[in-house]
Every structure is written in structure tokens, then in C-alpha cells.
Amino acid sequence: MAVVWLGLFWLLAFTTPFCFGANVTYDGRALVIDGNRRVLVSGSIHYPRSTPDMWPDLIQKSKDGGLDVIETYVFWDSHEPVRGQYDFEGRNDLVKFVKLVKEAGLFVHLRIGPYVCAEWNYGGFPLWLHFIPGIKLRTDNEPFKAEMKRFTAKIVDMMKQENLYASQGGPIILSQIENEYGNIDSAYGSAAKTYINWAASMATSLNTGVPWVMCQQSDAPNPIINTCNGFYCDQFTPNANTKPKMWTENWSGWFSSFGDPLPYRPTEDLAFAVARFYQLGGTFQNYYMYHGGTNFGRSAGGPFITTSYDYDAPIDEYGLLRQPKWGHLKDVHKAIKLCEEAMVATDPKTTSLGSNLEATVYKTQSGKCAAFLANFGTQSDATVNFNGKSYNLPAWSVSILPDCNNVVLNTAKINSVSTVTEFVPQSSADDTATIDAFASGWSWINEPIGISSDSAFTKPGLLEQINTTADKSDYLWYSLSTEVKEDEPFLKDGSQTVLHIDTQGHVLYAFINGKLAGSGKGRNSNRKVSIDVPISLVPGQNKIDLLSLTVGLQNYGAFFDLVGAGVTGPVQLKGLQNGSTVDLSSQQWTYQVIEFKFLYIFRLT
Hints:
8-stranded parallel barrel; 6-stranded antiparallel beta sheet; 12 helices
């Protein structure tokens, strides 16, 4: 009988995926993994913003840069473009991404949201939510809560089925519910508090075995950890002394939008912010972004967010190291890790060394000691005395002393290599032949101006664009044929007519009788377009065709989901000399949604 049981044991050993789970909890100092407090460095990489072939290299470069954790959002609209129809393939293969992080020996922070902002189209919500009867997003609304719970539970169940939570032996040590709701919750009134309490309860009921966080949510209920987002979070304090000081978004740069300068954050400033956070009691910090990547397809939000989501991150859009940022931060991480034993054993004690000068000491009963010396003045270098020694502190810098004696790094002093990436065209004798062969494989068509499809329809008045296209396309034609009589004042007096158009954005082209008459475009800071176009009309029928374009849907703000687009009016004809006005807004307009389908044919010879 003993032999039978022994045989059964070995059979199970080779056929059952035993998972030795980690116990992840927290206290007032840090996350606690298997009984050990940890000082953790994290970085955001959004799996749909790079290709699966890039993932292993990006993860390895993150590990080489001193990261412990990879943080990512989960993008609902990508995974469920049609309700009940899911996509977890290719760039959407979340399970594969998390497993690759595990293979590299790193942890994962899974920010389920499912609202993500992220400069992503519609904040990551699938637009079909908007059309559910009675729904109101991100508030105490039963239709929305039902959908949010369904999707959140699906993601959690997927992770559990693959044993990806730390409690199952996987890499996921944290999850996030909601996202920066505290920035805008006052607009939702008393329902906001009810909603947040519900979201917290719903998330914890899913029994992931790891802590949940809410970023920018000062009233996050227990046991949810409230965390900080921003350029600087050293002064942040969690809402209970039983929760650790955590920074979920340290903005390594900023997103770029069409028409605006490319953002840039100096390496020294980023390093200063990191060191100050750990100096003043922080134990978990995440770079948003560590690799920004690319907004593929129509995923960019905004409006007017660019295709590039480079973010001036330590790893650039193409997966190349951005130096000296990557290298200097690696050195900062090494210096902070040298202090970890002292940092997790005790609370920091900070004293003033003068104006804008501070010393923070972590000293244990066993004699372990680590210190941070900070000059948070922006103008002048300083010399300070600490523990009987003199130290020079450049302006806006932190010196790290893992033994409370010797400086291993100052954040303002960069020792890593600096590089500049250039794209260099490669010429060859076959260039001309190659270009000719490539061009011969392409064909093109001239898109007709105005209505050209049987799918066009006519409605009185001007329709809001997003409700009309359901975000299936960025393009909508508004077309009107209007009769101008010979005795119209603006024809009789010879004055030129002005076509006035007001829109909710984002780009507009106006055609009169088949010819382009004028255009206008908004920008990220003001999506609306208002134009006055001088036009020439003729007696009889005149064709007005307005092509309205969206450039990414709104992704942030209270009630962002209700922000419209398209030609909402008024649309008016105005006579310059006589002041007469004809309002065309309520007339019968014909509409056509333009859906482009691209077919790429490559000939290999």
C-alpha cells in the first residue's frame, strides 16, 4: 500500500503544476513579501504600445537598469472591442507579457482600472459602453458598475487560471482599481464616495491574495493603499499610518501632442525626485513611463495625442537606451539599494542643516546606518557639516551615504555615458531599382468629395459626430445642397459671402461646389474649431460639403465620456456688406461615415 501511495505521489509531482506562493502584505513602512519589507523600484511598460518581439528585450533592459517591478495598465477597449468578444492575441497578449516578466525574475503591478486615462482613446473604455441605456460612467450607476465588475473579474480570473498572482507563485504583487478618480470626484457629488467604496469592496472580493491600490485617492477605504502620482511625491503622506508611502507615477517626461513642443525632463531633476522620495520614507516608486512606446492604430487619445508615446523615458520609443537618463537612474537605484537594510528596519529621522538643506538618517538598533543629504534650493550650491564631516551639495541635489559616512552618488553628478540616437539612411547601388519595384506594388484612388455611398443618410439638423460614427471612423461628411436665389442681397450687392462654422472639433475641411474653400484645426488644449471662410456662391443650387475629423477621443476629466465632436453649429452664411445672415443649421443634412480599409500587397522578387 505504501508503494502505491509513493507511486501516486510521484505521478502527481510530475503532472501537477505546484506553485509555491508568496505572501504579499504591507505595513506602515513598505510592502512585505514573505515576511520581508522591500524597497522596490518599478517602471511602466504598456504591452500594447510595443510589439511582442520587443517585450523580452524591454524587460531585460528594465532589469539591467535596476528595476524590481514592471507596471502596466490593462486596456479594456483593446481586449473587448465588441461586448462579449475578446482579443488577447498579438500586442494584446497580456498573459504572455506577464509571463515574460516572471521569466526575467521581476514582479508585476497590474493596474486593471479599468479606466486608465493613459492618453489612450476614450481613456481605455470601449465606446460601446456609451450606448448602454441608462449608463453613467465612473459613478454610482448600476449599469456601469455591472460592466466594470464583469471586466475586472474576467482579468483577475485570467491571471488566476495562469497562476500569475504572487499568492499562486506568480509575479503579480499589486493590483490597482480605478485611476486618479480623486482628481475629479468632486464633480460627481455624493455619488463619488459611494462609487469608490463600492469599487474597493468589489476589488477585494475577488481574492487575488495581493494588495490593491488607488492612485490619487486620498479617501481610499481600508485596506486599499492610496498612492501618489506626479513629478514630485516626496511630501506625500498616505491616509493611514498603517499604509506605506508609494508613488505609482513618477512622470519621467510627458506625452506629446500635435502642434506642441516635444516634452523633456532633465535627468538630474528626475534623479533628484527619486532620491528625495526614498529619503523621506518612500519605499515603492514607479517611473511613468520607463518605456513609452507607440500609439498604434487609432489608440491615441487626447485629442491630438501623437502616434509616438516616447515620453522622454529611459528606454525610448524604439527600445533603445536613452542616455544618460537610463544609466544615471541605474546608478541611483544601486545607491538606494545599498541603503535598503537600514531603510526597512526603521523610520527616517530628518533634521535641518540650514536653509533648504536637510539630512535624513535611517539608523537601526544593530548599528546599520544610511543617510540622505539634500539641497532642495534651486539657485546655490552649499557645503554642509554632517557627523563631523564636510559635504558639498550642488543645488537641487541629493547625496546618498549608505554608511552615513561616504557619498556613493549625488543626483546632480552624472557619470554615465551620453548618447544621441540618429537615423542614418543607408544607400546602395540598387536604391533606384528597389524604390521603383516597391512603388509598382502600390495603387491609389481619388476619394470623391462629399456623399458617395449608399450608406449615407439624411437627418434634420447637425448631428454630434461620436454618436454618429460610434468611433468606427475618424471621418464624417456633413453635406447640404442649398438654393441661392438671384435676388439674395449678398449676390445683388456684389459682396463676398462668408461661411461661418462652429464645431466641437477636431479638424474641419469646408468644400463649396466641389472645391476646398477653407479649413481649421484645434489642439490638445482647445479641441474646438471655429472658422469664417470667404466663399463665392452662384445663383441656383450650391453644394456645401464639410469633412469633420476626430484625432483621438477625450481621455481625461470629469464626464470626459460626454465630450462631443463634429459640426454642432451654427453653420451660417453671412453677407459682409449688408449684414444679412442665413442659418443653415436646422436644414436637412446628409451624412456619410468614411471607413477606410487598407490592403497592403508586397511583391518579393
